[in-house]
Structure formats: structure tokens, C-alpha cells
Design goal:
Chain lengths: ~280, ~170
């Protein structure tokens, strides 16, 4: 099981990388490679050229500001997870990242790469959607910001153009009065989730004013459901918008069952989280 | 019929276990294959070749990484440690290797190089793991012989050996 031949470029600047990508229809960007390299080895992907961005400068940052956490294209999951400041500014990052594969994969895989790989079975695309974050992309044509709601086009398909490189992701800070929570069920910790659920609630006094829930592995694209008006039965509201499917890991019925169990549980955790933050 | 165009080869300088290996490889050469075939370091084992089994785990700049999920051409700027590089300078077993021997942490031995590298880095980060943390440390590696119990014991034993060695030195 070996990749098919491809041409390889290891540019030293972003400008060179963008020029290389613009000139090559079948080119692909290589960052951490934890999803791309297996696809190459299994020959599910056979790009004509790989543009390896690992030598580019200034893209490894995990920058924390009042607005949130900005993550560069070469920041590995492990580096984001290790940032205490990032976890304070947006606690859902660390909650979800600890479930992203195993430590060995997190050491090489990049958070931004995982976002634009757009796997609905992956944690971080859903987290970006739930937090209403965005991804900055660059090409020879210029830069633009893609809001998370417009980033995911289909299974393993983002809305990046062929000549664009995702250079940075922005995860907004958790606002005062808001709370988040994350839980997933997998056969072993670090495996793909059978179902993963995250919740984001906003509260005013004791009252929940907005509640949204995001799901991993129960649809083709990362799905976030607003359950503000159905807090008495949020799971049913969510299931109306989800498409749990059968695969070798779980039946559709079992996935639907997990949605029913996890949705209220994770929502309750998020409400507790909002209250606990207020106390401290 | 014209001959197919020969595949382009890249000159890659790999830093492995403190030595430099100049290899001449196609871009698609996986780091795991480069280590075994081009550097002759066959201690790194190749199991699934798609990042699931962990047998090919090596340390890249001190952190465990699947060598089957890296291209050799992409490893130029990194310091790589394979299982061959874990042994002490005098040739004796490292604490993790000694613990595997003490606790019968292996049977067929195929997965062992990946466990040894992952645990060596894991104990660097957390020198005194609980049993749960020891399990978490090896969660990304598959073993089809042992049932993992003796591997978890080996992690805890390796932590003890390291602590004892540290006390003797101080």
C-alpha cells in the first residue's frame, strides 16, 4: 500500500506556495498529513503535485486575544491543546481536542488542516461551526474569511477553491454568561466517535437565552441545531435535522439512541459550566 | 512503446539517532519505508500502513509520530529517534526496554518498537503516571498478543526504574 507518484514542492514562503498551487490543477496542500497521507497510501487520492507547507514561516501560532483564539495553519493539535491561555479563553477547544485521535496523531496533525479536511466524523469542524468561528484563506487572488457556516460543502468537501490555502482559523472567545460542554462515545478513547455532542448556551441570570448543540458522526457535514425553543425535548428537535447512518461501527438506530441520551446530558453540562464560570 | 518517465528522486538528509543519512528517494517514500529500506533501520516495524496500529511510531523532535503518516521528504528539518536510538550509550537497555523485559510486556514483539518509542516520550512528559494514565499513554498502539495488561505494568515499572535511576544520580 504505497502512494501513487506525485511531484513534490516544499516552498519557503507563502507566496511561493500560493503560486505553485495556482499553476497546478491537481495539486494538494500537505500540512500534518494525518488524513491526507493515508488517503494517498490507499490511493483514494492521487494528486499530481503536493505542496508541502511545513517549511513556511509564521504559521505555527496559537494566538490568544480578547476576541478569541487564532490558530495558524501549522499549529499541531497538541500545541493548541497544550495552550492554557487558549483553554481559558475558549474552553471548548481543549474539551474537544482531548478527543481528537490519539496523542501520536495530535503531535503531527494540524487543527486548521482538520477543519478544511471537513470530515463530519471529526471534532474540530463541528466545534468551529458551533462557536461561529471562521477560517482565513489565501490565494494569488488575495485573502478572504470564510465563516464556519459557509465552510462545509459536503462529505470531506470544504468551500475552499483549488488554489486557496487555509492560513488561520479563528475560534471566538466564550462570552461572559455562556457555557460549553462536550462528550462523545467511542469504542476506545481516541477512536472516531460513534456520536459526539457539544453544546453552547448563553444565559442571563438563571435563564437560558440561547442554546445550540453540535453533532459529530451523525450526518454528512458538521451540523449545529438551535434548540433554544425546545429545551424540554432538545434531542427530538436535533434528530429532526440529523441523518444518522449505519456503518460497521454502529447502526443508525444506535446513533439516534446516543443522540437522545447525550443531547440533554451535554446541554445540562453546558448550563452548569455557565453557572460555575459566573461564580468564579 | 516509449519507456515510462522515470520518477523524480529527491536528495534528502535525514537526522536519525544522532547520525545523518543521505537518501535518494521519490517524494512518495513514506518515512517508515525510508527508515527501513534506505537507512537500514529495520527496528521500526510497519503494520497497517495507514496510521491505525502504531507499530511504526518514531520520535520526531522528541514527540511520538506515526512514521507511515509522514513522507521522508517532509522530515528533512527534524531529528528522528527510532527504537534503535533508545538504547543507553553503553548499549544497555533503556528503562522502558528493561521494564518490558521485566514485566513480559511483549510476546511476538512486532508492535513493541512502537510501544517503546511512544512510552519513552510519554514518560518524559509524565514521569509518574497513574494506571489510567499509563493506559491512555498506549491507547494509540495495537498489540494482538499481550492483552495489554503487561504493557500497562511495563509503563508503571519503567516509571519506577527511571525514578530509581534519578535518585541514584542525585
Amino acid at each position: 500500500m504505497k502512494p501513487a507518484p506525485f511531484a513534490y514542492l516544499r516552498p519557503a514562503t507563502l507566496e511561493e506556495a500560493l503560486a505553485a498551487l495556482a499553476g497546478q490543477q491537481g495539486a494538494k496542500v500537505l500540512a500534518g498529513g494525518q488524513s491526507l497521507v493515508p488517503l494517498l497510501s490507499m490511493r483514494l487520492a492521487a494528486p499530481s503535485t503536493l505542496v508541502d507547507i511545513n517549511a513556511l514561516p509564521d504559521l505555527s501560532h496559537v494566538a490568544v486575544s480578547d476576541d478569541g483564539v487564532r490558530i495558524g495553519a501549522l499549529a499541531r493539535h497538541a500545541e493548541v491543546l497544550a495552550s492554557r491561555e487558549a483553554a481559558e479563553r475558549q474552553p471548548l477547544l481543549a474539551m474537544a481536542l482531548s478527543h481528537v485521535a490519539h496523542a501520536t496523531i495530535r503531535n503531527r496533525g494540524t487543527t486548521v488542516g482538520s477543519l478544511v479536511h471537513a470530515d463530519a466524523a471529526a471534532e474540530m469542524p463541528m466545534v468551529l461551526r458551533l462557536l461561529e468561528g471562521s477560517v482565513d484563506v489565501a490565494s494569488v487572488r488575495g485573502r478572504r474569511t470564510i465563516p464556519a457556516a459557509e465552510l462545509f460543502a459536503g462529505p470531506l468537501e470544504s468551500t475552499l477553491a483549488q488554489d486557496e490555502i487555509a492560513v488561520e482559523a479563528c475560534f471566538p472567545a466564550l462570552a461572559p454568561g455562556a457555557g460549553v460542554a462536550f462528550q462523545e462515545i467511542a469504542r476506545r478513547h481516541g477512536d472516531y466517535a460513534l456520536v459526539g455532542v457539544a453544546a453552547h448556551v448563553e444565559t442571563d441570570g438563571g435563564e437560558v437565552t440561547r442554546a445550540r448543540v453540535g453533532f459529530v458522526s451523525v450526518s454528512d457535514v458538521p451540523v449545529v441545531v438551535d434548540v433554544t425553543d425546545s429545551l424540554d425535548d432538545p434531542a427530538s428537535a436535533a434528530l429532526a435535522e440529523l441523518e444518522p447512518a449505519d456503518d460497521i461501527h454502529a447502526t443508525a438506530a444506535y446513533r439516534a439512541h446516543l443522540v437522545k441520551v447525550l443531547t440533554p446530558r451535554v446541554l445540562a453540562d453546558a448550563v452548569h459550566h455557565a453557572r460555575d464560570r459566573k461564580k468564579s | 512503446m516509449s519507456a515510462p518517465t522515470p520518477e523524480e528522486l529527491h536528495d534528502v538528509r535525514l537526522h536519525v539517532n544522532g547520525s545523518v543519512h543521505e537518501v535518494h528517494v521519490p517524494a512518495r517514500r513514506l518515512l517508515s519505508d525510508a527508515l527501513r529500506h534506505d537507512c537500514g533501520l529495520t527496528g521500526t516495524h510497519v503494520g497497517c500502513e495507514h496510521g491505525v496500529c502504531g507499530a511504526c511510531t518514531v520520535l520526531v523532535d522528541g514527540r511520538p509520530v506515526r512514521s507511515c503518516l509522514m513522507l521522508a521528504v517532509s522530515a528533512v528539518d527534524s531529528e528522528i529517534t527510532t527504537v534503535e536510538g533508545l538504547t543507553e550509550a553503553d548499549g544497555s537497555l533503556s528503562p522502558v526496554q528493561q521494564a518490558f523485559s521485566d514485566c513480559h510486556g511483549l510476546q511476538c514483539g512486532f508492535c513493541t518498537p512502537g510501544f517503546l518509542t511512544a512510552i519513552t516520550a510519554g514518560l518524559e512528559e509524565n514521569p509518574d503516571p497513574t494506571e489510567d494514565e499509563a493506559r491512555e499513554m498506549v491507547a494509540g498502539n495495537l498489540c494482538r498478543c499481550t492483552g495489554y495488561q503487561n504493557i500497562v505494568k511495563s509503563v508503571l515499572r519503567a516509571a519506577e526504574i527511571q525514578a530509581e535511576a534519578g535518585q541514584e544520580r542525585s
